Amino acid sequence: MDAKDRQIIRALQRYGRMTNQDLADEVNLSPSPCLRRVKNLEASGVIRGYSANVDAAAYGLPITVFVRIRLERHNETDVQKFEKQVRLIDEVLECHVLTGAMDYQLRVLVSDLEAYESFIRNRIHPIGGIASIDTSFVYGTVKETEVFPS
Question: Pfam families this protein is in (predicted)?
Fold first, then answer.
């Protein structure tokens, strides 16, 4: 991947619905080489897909929660069970493995506090093997972007 590919990626991250002609103009390429580069980035898996960036509150999920989880045991069976179950939970948008005191951080969207309580009681607790859960509710967002740094 070269600097021109990175330009293409950043332009598509800013506005994924731009035409190939607009993209080519943005990155100073003619349309054919630009399209060829995009197709190569897609084929190689660098560009994994395209989606709509939706306002969660307008969708009906105004509460973002960061949930940090520590497992009781770190054997292969318990780790795989936890990760498999988390992948199946719709409210979990992201799950990251962490270093430090906690093992995982989840980014969760819910409609209200009752929905969060239900999420914990009915989706997380039944997984089992969880030593602790630490929750932080987001009450404001300073910056949010999908565009990678150059």
Answer: AsnC_trans_reg, HTH_24
